[in-house]
Amino acid sequence: MQGLLSTILLLFLSRFQQFFELAVFAEWLFYMLTATTVFVYRRKRPDLPRPLPRLGLSNPAALFVVCATAVLISSYLSNLRGSLLGTVLILLGSPSSG
After folding, report:
1. Mean pLDDT over residues 25-46, rounded?
2. What phi-psi label fits residue 56: left (phi over 0), alpha (psi between -120 and 50 degrees) or beta?
3. Tell me, what's the pLDDT at 56?
4. pLDDT at 41 exceeding the cut of 90
5. Cα–Cα distance between 85 and 95 in angstroms, integer?
6. Angle separating helix axes 2-13 and 16-44, nearest 10 degrees
7. Is pLDDT at 98 greater than 50 in this prediction?
8. Which of 29, 63, 73, 94 lies deepest, with the highest CB count within 10 Å?
9. What are the tens digits of pLDDT across the range 51-73?
10. What SS3 state is found at 51?
11. Cβ distance 83 to 25 under 8 Å?
């Protein structure tokens, strides 16, 4: 299924560079979402010892989320069509809530 989707995308995008940019966009989106779990677990499990600081942007996870957000915004500004396509494809693959 993944190979079929990749082939279809390559046919529509017609350039490997666009396909690569789409993949990079998706990777950064999921890197950012993964880093935000640090904050979820800190709230759910406040009793656990913390190896990373928590205050302000001295927190590496917060700094990473800010930088990843900047990369995603830059991706949207420089390649709106590809970024929107990537967003739609990601949303199509998300589980339904029903």
Report:
1. 88
2. left
3. 59
4. no
5. 18
6. 130
7. no
8. 29
9. 766 665 557 888 899 999 999 99
10. coil
11. yes
Q: Which two tokens stand for residue 84?
A: 């929107």
| 50-64 burial code (b ≥16 CB/10 A, e <16) | eeeeeeeeebebbeb
Given the structure tokens 């998300």, which residue do they identify?
94
* pLDDT exceeds cutoff 70 at 32: yes
- Tokens matching residue 25: 């966009």
C-alpha distance across the termini of the chain, in Å: 23
> What is the structure's pLDDT at 85?
79
The residue to which tokens 């082939």 are assigned: 7
Torsion of CA 11, 13, 17, 21, to 10 degrees: -120
Torsion angle (degrees, nearest 10) of CA 91, 92, 97, 98: 160
